[in-house]
Amino acid sequence: MAAFQTLASATEPVRMVLVGAGGMGKQWIAALTANADVDLVGVVDLDMDAARAALDAAGLDGTPVGTSVSALAAETGAHAVVNVTVPVAHHPVNVEAMFAGLPVLCEKPAAPTVSLALSLAASAEAAGQLLMISQSRRYYQSLAAFRSEVGGLGDIGMVTTEFFKAPRFGGFRDEMQHVLLVDMAIHAFDVARYLVEQDPVAVYCDEFNPSWSWYRADAAATAVFELSGGTRYVYTGSWCSDGLETSWNGSWRVSGAGGTATWDGEGQPTVERVSASSADDAPTATAVSESADAAAAGPEEIAGSLAEFVSALRTGETPSGEIHSNIYSLAMVEAAVTSAETHQRVLIDDVITAALADAKANERNDAVRAILEGWESPAAIGKR
Ligand SMILES: NC(=O)c1ccc[n+]([C@@H]2O[C@H](COP(=O)([O-])OP(=O)(O)OC[C@H]3O[C@@H](n4cnc5c(N)ncnc54)[C@H](O)[C@@H]3O)[C@@H](O)[C@H]2O)c1
């Protein structure tokens, strides 16, 4: 049985309300209108003019707008919600939607803190609804091919990501604390989990601001994670690195018992396998190849997460970004920030344990608090 309510019809287009008509909301309008399995039936924003302007720009004037997700969903007969508001609004909007009987596909990060993300996971259980976090950088055909090659390398020793970009954003990012770790690194951390199918155990992170940085706070970091299978994941990134920039997905290398695979974050991966005919022989390289596109063609980026969300609602199959599992990606960020601040190695379980105590103390909804009280340790939260 599905852990969440599925749709009554497996063929009828899913009627969806979009919440948040900002920069990313406009991209979601394009993704929603391009998907034949979905009908965009309304747009919610605190700023109704922004909602109307976004719809006008897409040639969708006449689509209903409002400021309340539950009210507009009831008015339009919506089946589901996409939440593309700012991170601080993710918790209240998701909770309102789920308790109005609507499943939610929410932009990353799930919430500003692990504590609030735990409240969201318990709220999803209390409401019996699917809450999926859209980690759009999981959805690339070349990443699927890379993952398939990594799966053939046997035990994995190390995974590395190098992320070097030099964007001049202007605005809030130039001022925010831990800008690289909080605003960007979650994408790579989440992909690392997806790639080797292991969860994070601990992290040591060093963060600093290069002398020429145009950011007020630290915009460069190296984080070394221990993962549950013993693999070490090393992320090195900078957001003020002009010249020879990497792709937005970063450059990846995976070193395993059976060889090495690399991915530049854009093109097809490359793999070199080794084999030893007997235990005494030195391994010999057998092939350096551009990976064949092993993965089935499928939609990429937010179109990919939208397709997985719709499929989950129709089949009851748990999607990869379901909130319980996504908490571990958010916890990687929070643990890396704590490590950078304290100069100590930080255990992921300690981060989740502290967040759980905080969530229990601050939860106002009785049904949600009862579920949180039933979670005595990080292991009890479970994954779906
Ligand atoms: N996946 C990606 O690559 C990617 C890229 C950019 C942004 N994002 C994420 O998308 C989300 C939105 O980012 P953005 O750049 O579009 O932000 P934005 O500030 O441009 O837009 C946010 C919109 O939400 C509205 N809003 C805020 N609180 C609201 C509430 N309570 N109810 C209704 N509307 C509300 C604002 O009025 C604004 O129009 C963030 O979570 C961000 O991290 C993801």
Itemize the secondary structure elements and their pairings:
Elements (H helix, E strand, L loop, with lengths): L13 E6 L3 H12 L3 E7 L3 H10 L7 E2 L2 H8 L3 E4 L3 H13 L4 E4 L6 H14 L3 E4 L6 H11 L4 E9 L14 H5 L1 H12 L3 E9 L11 E8 L4 E7 L12 E6 L2 E5 L6 E6 L8 E7 L10 H15 L7 H20 L3 E2 H15 L3 H8 L4 H4 L3
Parallel strand pairs: 1-2, 1-4, 2-3, 4-5, 5-6, 7-10
Antiparallel strand pairs: 7-11, 8-9, 8-15, 9-10, 11-12, 12-13, 13-14
Helix pairs in contact: 4-5, 5-10, 5-11, 5-12, 8-10
Question: What is the name of the CATH topology of the largest domain?
Answer: Dihydrodipicolinate Reductase, domain 2
Radius of gyration: 21 Å
Distance between the amino and carboxyl termini: 12 Å
Based on Cα principal axes, name the global outline.
globular
CATH top level class name of the largest domain? Alpha Beta
Succession of helices and strands? EHEHEHEHEHEHEHHEEEEEEEHHEHHH
